[in-house]
Design goal:
- This protein is α/β, with parallel strands linked by helices and 332 residues long.
- It folds into 2 domains: 192 residues, Rossmann fold, CATH 3.40.50; 105 residues, Rossmann fold.
- It has 11 helices and 10 strands.
- The strands form 2 sheets. A 6-stranded mixed sheet has the order 1-2-10-7-8-9, with helices on both faces.
- The radius of gyration is 19 Å and the shape is globular.
- The chain binds 4'-deoxy-4'-aminopyridoxal-5'-phosphate (PMP).
- 4'-deoxy-4'-aminopyridoxal-5'-phosphate (PMP) binds next to helix 3 and helix 7.
- 4'-deoxy-4'-aminopyridoxal-5'-phosphate binds next to helix 3 and helix 7.
- Its cofactor is pyridoxal 5'-phosphate.
- This is Cysteine synthase A.
- Pathway: Amino-acid biosynthesis.
């Protein structure tokens, strides 16, 4: 194991874990990139580090400056840890629907937390727009405040293009046929997709879209349309963000919670992997892509964060019953 000078060097270089049941069911080798093992506990540590390093390099972020962001939680946790390590302040705007576990983690890290009602992007009070406005207001008052703007800041995808993607390729010695994940900002999908296509042009890239998101319909018909909803957090995009726009997508699948959650509960009980809801959508997507490409292929997806972050929701029998979602025997 490596020895690092700071927590920042401990971001990335995560293991690839073979997903046994998913591999057996498809005759493929399906691997999950264990992003829950990052110091902040999610795939978003990488984007946070890349965005902050980019803002330092451009001169926008100065010593002691403030980073403002609208986030479902994980990006905020990543930004707060990188900011703490480098002497910056963070102000995080989060929709009030996100899990209490993520909010208390943000408070523990000393981020200033602003909870706002969850309203669509078209509403000016949407958390993303709110955070952009707040950064402008602080800057207008003479503070050195930047807006991380993870959705439309392509430093996000570059972080994955320079680290996550090359790591996956190298870990498998280039023996990879497909990669698939869901999109929040689209940074992971675009960054990993681009890195893999650059190294191996015939690698197939898939999007796993939860219900309530619009990208599946966009890739199928050219129109952004959504239906239904999902209890997953951090994913499900309704517009073509700057990061999504650069994703080289070959296949798109729409995944319901009913399809994804049993896979998640099974992984916890039988493979020792307790994961968050977006990982479930990703793994269900990997199984669809494996069936599309046929047996013998090697497919990779992302294990975005830990189930511990959703103990009060995804792994709470009362919550699942209320939503009419499948409840595993071991949890009941
Ligand atoms: N899973 C979780 C749990 C997340 O928090 C996020 C980011 N919001 C994602 C997946 C999606 O990652 P990306 O923003 O790179 O599309």
């Amino acid at each position: 194991m490596k020895v690092t000078e700071s927590v920042l060097d401990a971001i990335g270089d995560t293991p690839l874990i073979k997903l046994r049941a998913a591999s057996q069911a498809t005759g493929c080798a399906i691997y999950g990139k264990a992003e829950f093992m990052n110091p902040g506990g999610s795939v978003k540590d990488r984007a946070a580090l890349a965005i902050i390093r980019d803002a330092e390099a451009s001169g926008a972020l100065k010593p002691g400056g403030t980073i403002v962001e609208g986030t479902a939680g994980n990006t905020g946790i990543g930004l707060a840890l990188v900011a703490n390590a480098l002497g910056y302040r963070t102000v995080i705007v989060i929709p009030d629907t996100q899990s209490d576990e993520k909010k208390s983690m943000l408070r523990l890290q000393g981020a200033e937390l602003i909870e706002v009602p969850a309203v669509p992007y078209s509403n000016p009070d949407n958390y993303v727009k709110y955070s952009g406005r707040l950064a402008e207001e602080l800057a207008a008052k003479g503070q050195n405040a930047i807006w991380a703007n993870q959705f439309d800041n392509v430093a996000n995808l570059r972080g994955h293009e320079e680290t996550t993607g090359p790591e996956i390729y190298d870990q498998l010695g280039g023996r990879i046929d497909g990669f698939i994940c869901a999109a929040g900002t689209g940074g992971t999908l675009a960054g990993v997709g681009r890195a893999l296509k650059a190294r191996k042009p015939d690698v197939k890239i898939g999007l796993a879209d939860p219900m309530g998101a619009s990208l599946y319909s966009y890739y199928k018909t050219g129109e952004l349309k959504s239906s239904g909803s999902s209890i997953t957090e951090g994913i499900g995009q309704g517009r073509i963000t700057a990061n999504v726009a650069l994703a080289p997508v070959d296949f798109a699948y729409q995944i319901t919670d009913e399809e994804a959650l049993p896979i998640l509960f099974d992984l916890a009980a039988r493979e020792g992997l307790l994961l968050g809801g977006s990982s479930a959508i990703n793994i269900a997507g990997a199984i669809r892509l494996a069936r599309e490409l046929g047996p013998g292929k090697t497919i990779v997806t992302i294990l975005c964060d830990s189930g511990a972050r959703y103990a009060s929701k995804l792994y709470n029998p009362a919550f699942l019953r209320e939503k009419g979602l499948p409840l595993p025997a071991w949890l009941a």
